[in-house]
Design a protein that fits this description.
458 residues; alpha+beta; BirA Bifunctional Protein, domain 2; Rossmann fold; eight-stranded mixed β-sheet; 19 helices; 42% helix
Length: 458
């Protein structure tokens, strides 16, 4: 049988891993620069930990892990007979692959609350899994790079997360637009529409607006029991055009009778006021009143980032997040507000690859390769490579004494720019020949000189 991998998953070649590690390095540096500490959680969580945290749509996308042993002994056969796959799956699966990094983080905080100093900043770079339909930019296994701070209600946290976005995307060289909204505004809208109990239905439908259009959103909400009169309040808000101040002025009128909505307006105004103090070069911020983000646990600011470079065909978000006031309360620790963002590393890599943002220096693991001219009889080449590595230069040796043409072709195929050649002539004079494969130039150096040259170039 021809080998294959599951749809929505990918192998990553060495060249791809070098590029991905370049991105991870930038993000990890940014997290550390802002005071976040590293954390990892298991790939599997208890199914009960994950279910009910992402809304009905999200729960369907959780990969369940079949119990080991005689799992049918505990199976819900009535659910099977009724074709109730969801109830049956729960009876034979106590564990699941994590859907995101935020819920496991909340679980960790509750379990380790007496060991943590609050406010607690953590970052996490690990894969997550979703039983989604694979398509461009959407995978079943992908990496998230999360930064969260928990234990503070201050909008300074949101402001710093957006500064962190600038740090990362300026280092990458990608211009982005940061779309902002606030769940309190949406809750206020649900109140003035007269359907406060339908907030989740409204946010789930709004989250599809860009993909399916307003008519489909209207159909979905009508099917959920939301009246045409209520829609006459929501639709003008979704369609309203104008700068941030114009949108806030409109909301002042629409949400005048909603205390929750007015609180959302106050928070958005304060956040934009904070952000006005910074000169961003690679991001712009805008208030997007149609932004909902379908995850149930968001309660305040919500953030979504999209590439703003005209050279990319990607329209999906590449980063997102928001504030959650009581996610830990689900696990028994109430009143612990947090806020975070998540970089979609796979989508960012796809964008960078499409428009050529990976530096050439990150296409090869090695800067220099020593060719095997005559088996290195005196060990001088091996000794030089050792000194180069200790000096911080990535270096490798071709192991077999084959034709130089083949060795040069090998180095070129791997993207190695420099090769070291030491034949009898160089050995007799105590020198080493360094050839630049990019332009064909070559120079002869002592060991000390060659090390100095390559340290500067690495």
């Amino acid at each position: 049988m021809k080998p294959s991998i599951p749809k929505g998953t990918r192998d990553f070649s060495p060249a791809e891993m070098l590029r991905r590690n370049y991105l991870f390095g930038i993000i990890r540096t940014a997290f550390a620069r802002f005071g976040y500490l590293p954390l990892e959680t298991p790939s599997m969580e208890q199914l009960s930990t994950l279910m009910g945290k992402y809304g009905e749509e999200g729960d369907k996308l959780i990969f369940k892990v079949l119990d080991s042993g005689e799992f049918l002994d505990h199976a819900d056969r009535d659910a099977l007979a009724k074709n109730d796959s969801r109830k049956f799956a729960v009876s034979v699966a106590e564990k699941a692959l994590r859907y995101d990094l935020t819920v496991p983080f909340a679980r960790y905080v509750v379990m380790h609350q007496h060991e943590i100093v609050f406010p607690f900043r953590r970052y996490q770079i690990q894969p997550v899994w979703r039983a989604d339909r694979p398509q461009k930019g959407r995978y079943r296994e992908f990496y998230q790079c999360d930064a969260d701070v928990i234990g503070s209600n201050s909008l300074v946290c949101e402001s710093e997360l957006i500064q962190l976005l600038e740090f990362v995307f300026s280092a990458i060289g990608l211009k982005v637009v940061v779309q902002l909204n606030n769940r309190k505004l949406l809750a206020g809208l649900a109140e003035v529409m007269g359907v406060p109990d339908h907030l989740t239905d409204i946010t789930v439908a709004m989250d599809k607006l860009e993909k399916v259009g307003l008519d489909k959103v209207r159909e979905e909400l009508t099917a959920k029991g939301i009246s045409a009169q209520a829609m006459t309040i929501l639709e003008p808000v979704l369609l309203f055009k104008g700068v941030t101040n114009d949108k806030l002025a409109m909301l002042d009128s629409v949400l005048a009778t909603s205390e929750t909505g007015r609180k959302g307006i106050e928070e958005i105004r304060a956040l934009f006021s904070m952000l006005s103090n910074f000169s961003f070069t690679h991001l712009s911020c805008e208030l997007d009143l149609s932004l909902a983000r379908g995850l149930n646990y968001y309660t305040g600011a919500i953030i979504e980032v999209k590439a703003a470079d005209e050279r990319t065909s990607f329209s999906s978000s590449i980063c997102g997040g928001g504030r959650y006031d009581d996610l830990t309360g689900i696990f028994g620790l109430s009143g612990m507000s947090g806020v975070g963002i998540s970089f979609g590393a796979d989508r960012i890599c796809d964008v960078m690859e499409e428009i050529g943002l990976f530096p050439e220096s990150h296409t090869s693991a090695a800067t220099v390769m020593a060719v095997n001219f005559d088996g290195d009889p005196d060990g001088s080449v091996a000794a030089l490579l050792h000194r180069l590595r200790m000096a911080g230069v990535n270096a490798e040796a071709y192991p077999d004494p084959v034709k130089l043409k083949k060795q040069f072709a090998f180095a070129d195929a791997k993207g190695i720019r420099y090769v070291i050649v030491r034949g009898d002539e160089e050995r007799n004079s105590g020198m080493f020949n360094l050839k630049n494969l990019a332009d064909g130039t070559q120079h002869t150096y002592t060991a000390e000189e060659l090390i100095g040259v390559l340290v500067q170039k690495d």
